[in-house]
Design a protein that fits this description.
This protein is α+β, with helices and mostly antiparallel strands. The protein has a single domain, classed as HIT-like (HIT family, subunit A, 2-Layer Sandwich), CATH 3.30.428.10. It is built from one helix and five strands. Strand 1 and strand 2 form a beta hairpin.
């Protein structure tokens, strides 16, 4: 698609292969927040073929040491928003690789489980 920000990224490419690329998020939630984006324009991860899906998660794995070297995070969150109800706003599949730092939130326990109020701490 001509107007898709992920089909034609205008930012640093951290890593790439024939199926996907890793770029920095334009609106990062932490230092080093990266996105792994398939080259083929599809709406969600569920629309990728098995080879593309595997390539995207291989880049998640490959991007981790790059971000560790550049930003020295203490941990990571990995996630994808698939569908409007899940918060997806850009309709090109992508995976967030979010570096986390000690003290970036008062209590990180539960991680992504805390995206819904009162759902994580049971």
């Amino acid at each position: 698609m001509e107007d898709c920000i992920f089909c034609h990224p205008k930012r640093e490419i951290l890593l790439e292969d024939r199926h996907a690329l890793a770029i920095f998020d334009a609106h990062p939630v932490s230092r080093g927040h990266a996105l792994i984006v398939p080259r083929r324009h599809v709406a969600t991860l569920w629309d990728l073929d098995p080879e593309e899906y595997a390539a995207c998660f291989a880049l998640v794995r490959a991007a981790r040491p790059v971000l560790e070297s550049r930003f020295s995070p203490d941990g990571f969150n990995v996630g994808a928003n698939c569908g409007e109800a899940a918060g997806q706003t850009v309709w090109h599949a992508h995976i967030h690789l979010i570096p986390r730092y000690r003290g970036d939130v008062p209590n990180p326990r539960g991680g992504v489980r805390n995206m819904l109020p009162h759902a994580g701490h049971h």
